[in-house]
Design goal:
Strand content of chain A: 5-15%
CATH superfamily of the largest domain in chain B: FAD-linked oxidase, cap domain/gating helix
Structural class of chain A: alpha/beta
CATH topology of the largest domain in chain B: Vanillyl-alcohol Oxidase, Chain A, domain 3
Number of helices of chain B: 15
Oligomer: heterodimer
Strand order of the largest sheet of chain B: 15-12-14-13-17-18-16
Strand order of the largest sheet of chain A: 1-3-2-4-5
Helix content of chain A: 40-55%
Number of strands of chain A: 9
Number of helices of chain A: 25
Structural class of chain B: alpha+beta
Strand content of chain B: 15-25%
Number of domains of chain B: 3
Largest sheet of chain A: 5 strands, mixed
Shape of chain B: globular
Largest sheet of chain B: 7 strands, antiparallel
Number of strands of chain B: 18
Distance between the termini of chain B: 54 Å
Bound molecules: flavin-adenine dinucleotide, iron/sulfur cluster
Shape of chain A: globular
Helix content of chain B: 25-40%
Chain lengths: ~450, ~475
């Protein structure tokens, strides 16, 4: 079954385009950790091709090897032949998912998460409300005291400890409307993509994003019918559901008729950017998907064009930056965040050694591959500590949580904080006046 | 399939996690960077020390199992394909720099150290290891030595063979030999060091190497010279050298290559010129400046349409990167990329380039040429599709003619990529029947049971030499 599913899903032409030069290997975290050819991009592509060619059966080792891949796509920009590895691994995972018989409880959890939770933003807020109750009511304290959490695996416990305060309201509720006018002259009309988890766990970052955009001269449309970007679905082999979500988002922003669609999460942005690929075979949606994909921008790209760092407050601290893999390798945004950080008056920017290497967060990777994720994080925190920075900036919620966990584990708490780039910029940019919607 | 008992013996030597026979591992070590070559080994063994290699070698000798030694698997001659099955011996875990000796200016390394790591380690203290194959970010020094790899700096600084001072190697009978040493002079007996360099894993397994270092050149400058006509570029190369200037790099890209590299890297190369020379010089600042001026004058005299001298380090870096990714970038055009490295005396570059063009057109193929023009080492690179058998046949014929043309011009079938499987049928064209006999004798003296990398270098059958009538 898996064999047939793979044969059907894998793009054989792209598999053949890999010329096995191996240039991708030094970029791959799992190869660097193991030195094992099969755990490298070249190796994984060769395994996929071997299955497609009938040289090998897709056995358990095959599936495990595919799951060990972080999906960080660091192998893509360095590939001279332009092999779209990210697409190949997603096709593989889709096939694995299709052929796999999960135990009933895994099926139930997956259904719940992928079909009944993430796609429904209202339910995300409700869950946020529950979480907030847990965090605020004293239940969290009690639970921690009782040691109930010790039944959870270590990674989950650590996550529990660093999860930020949840919100039961989305940004639309906060602003009381979906159209926020530009401060001063309107330069662009931009659509704000608020994300599903972002809007619950990092609601403040979303609010800051709207504020920065508006103060930079953007009329911000928080397209009301938007849903989860579908990245978690696509990375977990649920591409069909991802397509379903993509169509909804394309429709929502197309209706809003915006110049750009702005994301503040590298993981979401990279997914949105690839809607044209995702819907390439959908005759009805193809064209609109292209319209959509060509407008997706990261917040740092828009701000670099529009803001005047001269007017920022001075910040006499050391700043370093861990890039989000999908922002870097998926959206190909590398310079903008750094140039914004370097422009902060008074601050010292220190380059993080291997700041372009995956931190091991990779969606839910740190929960399912704790060993690899753990050793990647340890290595990362070594480099982070060496920067002696006061602020560790990232550009994606998953990375931010992982960095917070890393700071916690490395005993750097109190010495260093992990901050989303938007929140840092909001700190240095004086608030003009509280924003209110247009409607 | 190896009997379970033998696999047990191997496992006992290197440990279970370093002795793999699961499907996944066999597939992962069934290929290298050579197009259209693949064969599964019986077992993959990853030793951590010379002693372990000796023990593995003894097991193999006892049971007559072939051993294919593997570094990074980046070679282009099929050198690490286990055609006859057996053991693939992966040396990537032996990746330590043993010592940098600043008194003697040497570095001692294990075979699995990456070339680029050697560069970084020695350049950090103002020293220099010149050989820089295009694959240096992945290739291992063991692979470089076994193939005597060249690189962009070959013209001025020589190739790997010029930097290997001493070796430690495991022989097919399991004994260890040490050749050479931290010595600039050594004539004690046959030069086994030089013999092992370029031996393609067929004579012994290299387990440690002492390499020569030189002081790092003070400055480095590069320029691009663009020509409307391929022959003018080739003539400039000959003229520069005839004027007794030896540039640090002297690389050549033809139009097809330029277009593809530009498409890949967007560094502002003009895509309408017929050829670009990338010329670099390093050394004392005054000498470098003077050489660069003279080179520019020579290119102008040969009707260069544009000359661009890189002014910043970043610009220089980009220019070099573009050349380094040439082969790779070409692979974007078609699924299969076949890269050859026919080499001629540098004075014969112009006729060689013309011959390649003529052959390409006659066979209706897409072949772009780039390469180390300063040392006559050209890389005619064919973009094709392995699934199109008819076209592949034409490709084979075309390359046969290209090899023949190179030999006619006093050149060779391979300048730096090695013979391996893919060039084995043509080796006799270059070395002759008597040459083949003496080489086979050497192989027999080292490896009487033909255990190390069998089927490489010596083909079962040589190709008949094509006789081409050329006007
Ligand atoms: C994109 C690209 C660019 C390239 N550019 C160049 C270039 O500019 N110049 C150049 O010369 N080559 C070039 N090559 C070819 C190749 O990278 C080199 O030949 C390199 O030296 C191979 O090193 P490796 O570690 O990958 O060796 P492998 O491919 O693993 O092995 C190569 C050969 O060496 C033998 N071997 C490996 N290690 C040992 C050992 N310790 N003891 C005994 N035998 C051993 C193997 O059996 C095999 O026959 C290029 C290849 C690619 C893909
Ligand atoms: S860099 Fe690209 S072409 Fe080269 S081995 Fe990796 S995926 Fe294949
Ligand atoms: S996506 Fe990341 S982990 Fe996966 S093969 Fe590419 S570089 Fe390696």
């Amino acid at each position: 079954m898996l064999k047939e599913a793979l044969e059907k899903k894998l793009d054989y032409d792209e598999l053949s385009n890999c010329m096995r030069c191996g240039f991708c290997q030094p970029a791959c975290p799992t190869f660097r950790e193991t030195g094992y050819e099969a755990a490298s991009p070249r190796g994984r592509i060769a395994l996929m091709k071997a299955v497609a060619d009938g040289v090998m059966e897709p056995d358990k080792d095959f599936v495990d090897q595919m799951n060990l891949c972080l999906g960080c796509r660091a192998c893509e920009p360095v590939c001279p032949a332009g092999v779209p590895y990210g697409q190949l691994i997603e096709q593989t995972r889709e096939a694995i998912e299709e052929a796999q018989e999960h135990p009933w409880w895994v099926k139930a959890v997956r259904r719940l998460a992928f079909f009944h939770l993430f796609p429904h933003q209202k339910r995300m807020y409700q869950l946020g409300g529950l979480l907030r109750f847990y965090q605020r009511s004293g239940v969290q304290k009690a639970v921690r005291k009782l040691g109930v959490l010790s039944i959870l695996p270590k990674q989950m416990r650590e996550m529990e400890a660093i999860i930020p305060e949840a919100s039961s309201k989305g940004i639309v509720d906060y602003f009381g409307g979906t159209v926020i006018p530009a401060v001063g002259e309107r330069k662009y009309r931009v659509g704000m993509f608020h994300g599903c988890i972002m809007d619950v766990l990092f609601n403040e970052t979303n609010r800051n994003t709207v504020r920065l955009l508006s103060e930079a001269g953007c009329e911000v449309i928080i397209a009301p019918d938007q849903v989860c970007c579908g990245a978690l679905h696509a990375h977990s082999g649920e591409r069909e559901q991802a397509r379903h979500l993509a169509r909804k988002n394309v429709a929502a922003f197309h209706k809003a008729d915006v110049d750009f669609i702005v994301s503040n999460a590298g993981g979401c942005g990279a997914m949105l950017l690839e809607y044209d690929h995702l819907l390439a075979k959908d005759a009805l949606w193809q064209e609109k998907a292209q319209w959509f994909a060509s407008r997706v921008k990261d917040i740092s790209e828009v701000l670099t064009r529009l803001v005047e760092p001269k007017e920022w407050q001075s910040l006499s601290q050391r700043i370093t930056y861990q890039s989000s893999c999908h922002l870097r390798n998926g959206m190909k945004v590398t310079k903008e965040p750094v140039s914004l950080l370097q422009a902060i008056p008074g601050a010292t920017y220190v380059q993080l050694r291997e700041g372009d290497r995956c931190c091991g967060s990779a969606g839910i990777y740190n929960l399912v591959q704790p060993e690899m994720a753990g050793s990647l994080l340890d290595e990362k925190m070594g480099h982070v500590a060496a920067t002696q920075a006061d602020i560790l900036v990232t550009s994606n919620p998953g990375c931010l949580l992982q960095m917070k966990a890393g700071i916690h584990q490395a005993g750097l708490e109190g010495k260093m904080e992990a901050v989303h780039i938007v929140d840092l910029l909001a700190r240095v940019q004086q608030e003009e006046k509280p924003l209110s919607p247009l409607e | 399939m190896l009997p379970a008992s033998i696999r047990e013996e191997l496992r006992a030597i290197v440990g279970a996690k370093n002795c793999l026979d699961k499907q996944e591992a066999l597939v992962a070590y069934s290929y290298d960077a050579t197009p259209m070559q693949q064969a599964l080994p019986d077992v993959v063994v990853m030793p951590k020390s010379t002693t372990e290699i000796q023990q593995v070698m003894r097991v193999a000798a006892r049971h007559h199992i072939p051993i294919v030694t593997r570094g990074a698997g980046s070679n282009l001659c099929g050198g690490t394909i286990p055609v006859g099955g057996g053991i693939v011996l992966v040396l990537s875990q032996m990746n330590q720099i043993v010592e940098i000796d600043e008194q003697n200016l040497t570095i001692t390394v294990q075979p699995g150290v990456r070339t680029v790591d050697i560069h970084q380690a020695v350049e950090a203290i103002g020293l220099f290891y010149p050989p820089d194959p295009g694959s240096m970010v992945i290739s291992t020094i063991g692979g470089n030595i076994a193939l005597n790899s060249g690189g962009l700096r070959g013209l001025k600084y020589g190739t790997t063979k010029d930097y290997v001072l001493g070796l430690e190697a495991v022989l097919p009978n399991g004994e260890v030999i040490r050749t050479g040493g931290k010595l600039m002079k050594d004539v004690a007996g046959y030069d086994l060091t030089k013999l092992l360099v370029g031996s393609e894993g067929t004579l012994a397994i290299i387990t440690e190497a002492i390499l020569k270092l030189i002081p790092k050149p003070q400055t480095q400058r590069v320029m691009l010279a663009m020509f409307a006509d391929m022959a003018q570029a080739a003539r400039s190369v000959s003229d520069i050298i005839a004027n007794r200037i030896i540039p640090g790099t002297l690389e050549f890209l033809d139009q097809g290559t330029i277009r593809v590299v530009e498409d890949f890297k967007q560094i502002g190369l003009p895509t309408d010129v017929a050829a670009i020379l990338l010329i670099g010089q390093d050394g004392e600042p005054q000498t470098v400046d003077r050489d660069m001026e003279q080179i520019a004058a020579i290119c102008k005299k040969n009707a260069a349409v544009q000359i661009k001298v890189a002014t910043t380090v970043e610009e220089a870096d980009e220019v070099m990167t573009a050349r380094r990714s040439a082969l790779a970038a070409l692979s974007r055009m078609r699924p299969t990329t076949i890269l050859e490295d026919a080499t001629v005396p540098r004075a014969a570059i112009a006729p060689m380039v013309a011959a390649i063009q003529e052959i390409t057109e006659r066979y209706g193929l897409q072949i772009c040429t780039f390469g180390h023009a300063g040392d006559g080492n050209l890389h005619p690179t064919c973009m094709t599709d392995a699934r199109n058998t008819e076209e592949i046949e034409r490709v084979e014929h075309a390359f046969e003619e290209i090899f023949a043309a190179a030999i006619d011009l006093g050149g060779t079938i391979t300048g730096e990529h090695g013979v391996g499987i893919v060039k084995a049928p043509y080796l006799e064209w270059k070395v002759g029947a008597a040459g083949m006999e003496i080489m086979k004798g050497i192989k027999h003296a080292f490896d009487p049971h033909n255990l190390l990398n069998p089927d490489k270098m010596f083909a079962k059958q040589s190709r008949n030499r094509v006789v081409v009538q050329r006007a």
